[in-house]
């Protein structure tokens, strides 16, 4: 059974004995307000030394060194990159991230995949045989651009069918805290029905991005029982998470991490 659980200062995704996957909270770091305390982004105005130490702690939670971490420059797109130990260290200290990328896949146990989040949905990926792991960043833009479909197709090309995938939809903003306007609603309706939308007025609706990703993953062939959802809304739980939508631009970022055990 795939599931999420809160363990200390992180949310752990229990997916396979040979896979480690977790999502940070805002607790357990060294950053000062308003980034207190476990901010993992160099791009929000926090001290570089604090972010570096916070990222080092994240890697250590998985028994890894910071220089094994690989991180991208995220652009709310649908590009996913295969990476290996040859990419390890890129973006880990802020320099030379993988450009224009919102997802990773790897078969290499010597690399730690990492992405940044504030409200968007983290999609953790493994297969039933623990041959491969992945991590994808799915805000509403990446979701309607089909990042989950792109990833499923890339894995199928490596001989891993969608019915063998195990998926975790991590902590993200829920529909309770996520109101969108008509242009976004129109984009969502291009790929899904109104079940993921709750009308507020004539020009606004609440959007359930995790439910939207679940639907699109199922349409791509992932078994419903192979998809777990973390029971946390980043907007409601500002004591536990950073939220761009609720707290504004001047706040920290969480991180999602996944790796194969050596």
Automatic annotation (TrEMBL):
Superkingdom, taxonomy of origin: Bacteria
Pfam family, one: Cu-oxidase_4
CDD domains: YfiH
Keywords noted in UniProt: Hydrolase, Metal-binding, Transferase, Zinc
Catalytic activity reported: inosine + phosphate = alpha-D-ribose 1-phosphate + hypoxanthine; S-methyl-5'-thioadenosine + phosphate = 5-(methylsulfanyl)-alpha-D-ribose 1-phosphate + adenine; adenosine + phosphate = alpha-D-ribose 1-phosphate + adenine; adenosine + H2O + H(+) = inosine + NH4(+)
Known function: Purine nucleoside enzyme that catalyzes the phosphorolysis of adenosine and inosine nucleosides, yielding D-ribose 1-phosphate and the respective free bases, adenine and hypoxanthine. Also catalyzes the phosphorolysis of S-methyl-5'-thioadenosine into adenine and S-methyl-5-thio-alpha-D-ribose 1-phosphate. Also has adenosine deaminase activity.
Name of the protein in its database record: Purine nucleoside phosphorylase
Protein's organism: Sulfobacillus harzensis
Lineage of origin: Bacteria, Bacillati, Bacillota, Clostridia, Eubacteriales
């Amino acid at each position: 059974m795939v599931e999420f659980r809160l363990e200390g200062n992180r949310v752990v995704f229990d997916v396979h004995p040979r896979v480690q996957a977790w999502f940070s909270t805002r607790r357990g770091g060294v950053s000062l307000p308003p980034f207190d305390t476990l901010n993992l982004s160099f791009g929000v105005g926090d001290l570089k030394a604090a972010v570096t130490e916070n990222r080092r702690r994240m890697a250590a939670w998985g028994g890894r060194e910071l220089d094994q971490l690989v991180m991208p420059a995220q652009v709310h797109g649908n590009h996913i990159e295969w990476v290996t130990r040859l990419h390890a260290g890129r973006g880990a200290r802020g320099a030379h991230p993988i450009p224009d990328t919102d997802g990773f896949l790897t078969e290499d146990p010597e690399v730690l995949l990492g992405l940044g989040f504030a409200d968007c949905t983290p999609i953790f990926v493994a297969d039933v045989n623990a041959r491969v792991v992945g991590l994808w960043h799915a805000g509403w833009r990446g979701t309607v651009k089909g990042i989950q479909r792109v990833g499923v197709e890339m894995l199928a090309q490596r001989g891993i069918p969608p019915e063998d995938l195990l998926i975790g939809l991590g902590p993200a903003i829920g529909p309770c805290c996520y109101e969108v306007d008509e242009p976004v609603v129109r984009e969502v309706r291009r790929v899904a029905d109104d079940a993921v939308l709750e009308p507020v007025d004539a020009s606004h609706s609440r959007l359930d991005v995790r439910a939207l990703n679940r639907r699109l993953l199922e349409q791509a062939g992932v078994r419903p029982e192979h998809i777990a959802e973390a029971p946390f809304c980043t907007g409601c739980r500002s004591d536990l998470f950073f939220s761009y939508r609720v707290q504004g631009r001047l706040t920290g970022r969480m991180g999602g991490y996944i790796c194969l055990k050596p």
